[in-house]
Write a structure and sequence with these properties.
146 residues; 6-stranded antiparallel β-sheet; 3 helices; 6 strands; 49% helix; 19% strand
Length: 146
């Protein structure tokens, strides 16, 4: 019984979902807003951490810490929204997101970057970190299935 309930919950929150290019593109209206907030809040968080380290007064440190706590909470909620959609944030500073997909029977990741109007590339699931992934333009959107 618990396994069935877990599967229902996972399906409802996007866990195990596979996106086609069209599905991913349609979801960008929402994803774009979430990721824009993450990039903005993350940049502010980095600035605040630097300011807190440089602050000389206890009041300055305390004010920075209070705002840091608020930003961390907002970032956590935004990450939960992405996870609910079954997505993975790959880069906090520029807003790179992976959408799970399938191509030719293999699991892949469709990659989107904040500022792009649509999904433009993909990569194999077993590639190392994002920095070393050479994304390949998707020529035929029909090769990627839901």
């Amino acid at each position: 019984m618990r396994k069935a309930a877990c599967k229902v919950r996972q399906a409802a929150c996007g866990v195990g979902r596979r996106y086609s290019v069209d599905d991913a593109d349609r979801s960008l209206v929402l994803v774009r807003r979430i990721v824009a907030d993450i990039v903005t809040d993350y940049a502010r968080l980095v600035d605040l951490q630097e300011a807190a380290e440089a602050a000389r007064s206890p009041a300055g440190v305390q004010a920075a810490r209070a705002e840091v706590a608020q930003l961390v909470e907002r970032l956590q909620r935004a990450l939960e929204e992405l996870e609910f959609l079954g997505l993975e944030l790959k880069d906090w500073s520029v807003g790179v997101v992976d959408f799970p997909g399938v191509a030719d029977g293999r699991e892949i990741r469709l990659t989107w970057r904040l500022g792009d109007q649509a999904i433009r590339s993909w990569h194999e699931i077993h590639c190392p970190t994002l920095q070393s992934i050479e994304t390949i333009p998707i020529v035929d959107a029909q090769t990627v299935e839901r």
